[in-house]
Protein 1
Amino acid sequence: MIHRFAHAAPTLSLALAALPLLLSMPVTAQETPEPATPSSVIAEAAPEEWTAIPAEDLLVMELAPDTAGNARRVVIQLIPAPFSQPWVENIRILAAAHWWDGTSVNRVQDNYVTQWGDVTEEKALPDDLIPTEGLEYTVPYSEAGNVGLTTRSYRTFWQNVRAAQDRSEASYDPVHNRFELPNLNRDIYAQGFGFFSGWPFALQDGLWPIHCYGYVGVGRGYAPDTGTGAELYTIIGQPQRHMDRNLAVVGRIIDGMQHLSSLPRGSGDLGFYTEEEARLRTPIVSVRLGTEVDAPPAYEYLDTASESFARYVNVRANRDDAFYTVPAGGVDVCSVQVPVRPVSE
Amino acid sequence: MIHRFAHAAPTLSLALAALPLLLSMPVTAQETPEPATPSSVIAEAAPEEWTAIPAEDLLVMELAPDTAGNARRVVIQLIPAPFSQPWVENIRILAAAHWWDGTSVNRVQDNYVTQWGDVTEEKALPDDLIPTEGLEYTVPYSEAGNVGLTTRSYRTFWQNVRAAQDRSEASYDPVHNRFELPNLNRDIYAQGFGFFSGWPFALQDGLWPIHCYGYVGVGRGYAPDTGTGAELYTIIGQPQRHMDRNLAVVGRIIDGMQHLSSLPRGSGDLGFYTEEEARLRTPIVSVRLGTEVDAPPAYEYLDTASESFARYVNVRANRDDAFYTVPAGGVDVCSVQVPVRPVSE
């Protein structure tokens, strides 16, 4: 089968692929090595550039099997301190109490969120949850050292991304006779963004985590309520950046996302399943911390301070492999997508 | 049911909702009218601000009914001239020939695309398709007058968006003692963006259409192939802006998107269904131009040169209704989402 509109390995040289753009881009010599792709950069990353995710940072949610009897496991990685820690701590308490067992997925709004929790809204919460009312979602720069953010680390990171521009003609600007990636580190919603300890953050008078695809947040009522952590949602469409700083981002789905994104949409207000659609609510069999799971799954992420990650961001910003004829010249924070993979034994 | 994390009408005053932010944002007086939401701006738009979509710009795709027997209709609006017209013209030819009848949805890649067409890749194409090899995807500014782009219309549009900032304290900057929406009209992938004739475009040495959620493009092989229009995909996750200027955007789904976004993901390379998953391919019963459908569905979009649309963009950029405590201060082009609705008779 021909992979039309493919990410497969290039079969034609860049020179041929770039033909329609001769006027705006110099032709690459035939002997140029094949341009890197996000996949090739990941494949070539050194083993020591990968960081294991501790089992205590994993949340394993088992949904009821699908109609064909297939298991549906969703794995969430919790965000590191100091971000959203009161809610993350509550989530650990709720998981330890097996609180979500028997609850369900109750809302699926297209291009927005899938949300799960207690549909009755009457299930008693554990007594020892941390109060969260009125808490802030942004972390001051002065408290961000824990994830490796310093002025130096930030500058070095973006310098490394630019330095990774070893891919020659892709971003050559013939008008100004220079190579450039003009739109790196630009964000619509903040002064900039960066990656620290494996996570993307927006930067502007502090740091905050971001509502990208597959990221998990805490449902809440009107402020000053900020939610307990018992009601969770994940983004199943375009990023919802207007929710940044308004709701707590507590994690991201690193495995099984399709079990939440491909569910039937609810026809009620905000995508909630109506009572007539009650059968569409997906039962949650169990939610456990990784440390409580027998033979817990193991994952690792590409160290966001590594040389390979800098190269990966660069390649994301400027695809010039055979399928692409016009490199984008930039990449938004959510389109970077930090590589996470199962650890193969 | 409490609509946690809700877009519902505010039930608390902004003054109360904004309490946690007293230090950075002045309190709104209790007598302030309820802040606008995207929904309220749409609801309040005048009838004459809505533009009917001609039936000849609609493509109606009937998928096989779902397992419960429910019909699955997907409606695509084709992009106006001068954008992607050779492919759009081919799509009209293919629809008139009933070419897609009996084909299927063959690829669903999570957070990427759903793609449909002839899985055998052996079905003969109509003889009269327009050759598209090597064609460009960007339209020079000088040819964009057809959608209403002029330097004046562009400036006026963004001036109107800023002028729509009648919502007071939401974007008040206490440090500089001024109101501002600093991040309007900023794009990571181009020098700017705008909305013309109901469509979003990136601007940089010309205009190009954008791969937002639900937008439809043309599958292709390696360049100089640009695809015929017979193989189509739609974005089912985050925007894929790196595909802009590399593939032809020919339309957007304005109804029934959930029938494509909630399909089971394929487990083959690039999300194609494997032969073992052949039963997951969704049969396409028919694809017809709106003009060939009995009792065609009717839709209208909010005129992107209207006052209400400018206000809508403004509100999208700075939600300050009761649910939000920190307005985003900007909006990316894909998060604007041009309002389209069925015409109610």
Note: Chain B touches chain A through 78 residues (CB under 8 Å).
Protein 2
Amino acid sequence: MILQRNDIEQLDQRYRTAFVNSLAGFRQAVLVGTKSIEGHSNLAIFNSLIHLGANPALLGLINRPDSVQRDTLQNIKDTNEYTLNYVSSKHYQKAHQTSARYEKGISEFEKVGLSEEYHHSFTAPFIAEAIVKIAMKLEEIIPIPINGTILIIGSIQQVSIDDVLVKEDGFVDLSSASVLVSQGLDAYFSTSMVGRMAYAKPD
Amino acid sequence: MILQRNDIEQLDQRYRTAFVNSLAGFRQAVLVGTKSIEGHSNLAIFNSLIHLGANPALLGLINRPDSVQRDTLQNIKDTNEYTLNYVSSKHYQKAHQTSARYEKGISEFEKVGLSEEYHHSFTAPFIAEAIVKIAMKLEEIIPIPINGTILIIGSIQQVSIDDVLVKEDGFVDLSSASVLVSQGLDAYFSTSMVGRMAYAKPD
């Protein structure tokens, strides 16, 4: 099928949301852990993790201010701290359940059945079961005027990961640990490597 | 292992680049097709596709001005048009080879062995072999001052995809077509679905 811009605009709203979100392809499923200034733990799934640079090591997240991610954004603004956690594909149901609109003050950790873990000098909670745990410091919030979304930019403060997953050249072998991948609003995947390539040169 | 910010900064540069890029996780491999004002076709792999919104349907790309993506950025600025193409995992070597620094004026389509395809009223080239072909119009370029990268925002003008991949609710089943996923600078994957979930509600 070929859909023109017009056709997409005229789709039923739920159909269009599912279509465009899933059309944007596969992405890393990341659970963002934060603490409110009142001390409540919060955990929310995002599927918009962006690599911005390696030196300094910067990652971005896209946030929709009107979504369940609202509490996460507020906590990041209030505390300047957050954690990024990747879980195994076997935890996909728990990961998805963090997208429910729990009331502020309710901990998604408790509700979905994942354990909080704390690291020295960092107040935001990690997921104990996570395969990758990254401590982040807020660096910048960039508004995207065209549709009111926000780009949250943070710097990596700490990375916790099993030694066996980090290869000799620095490559992090997430696939062998069956790290969870998402697509669209509700689909979850594991991966199989088809290959690694050498640095590409003109032939 | 636990790496602190300091440890990451002191890593060997190539190791750090591989580590932080791959740490950012899995993402959609997307081949961006453009045409220069001189009429030369260009094709370059990006691994930074971002879903920004469904209505209007907006997608973002992160661009490093000092990279091989430089020609793509210039062509997008000059013509306001580009295409996004997802290929099968069996084409991973061709997809990767588009990251080589070919001279301006050399067509990566020819060099890597993928075919150009043109759609009515759109001058940027698509990949004939692609599973998903999206025509984009440039909407906005947002500079990210912290490290000199750029967020390219475009609106979806047209989507071409086999009917059987679009499910009843609008979900695009990329996994069943073995659409290529990337991680870091050089690793490629296919996916297996672990599940789709209903809209999550508080219990």
Note: The radius of gyration of chain A is 18 Å.
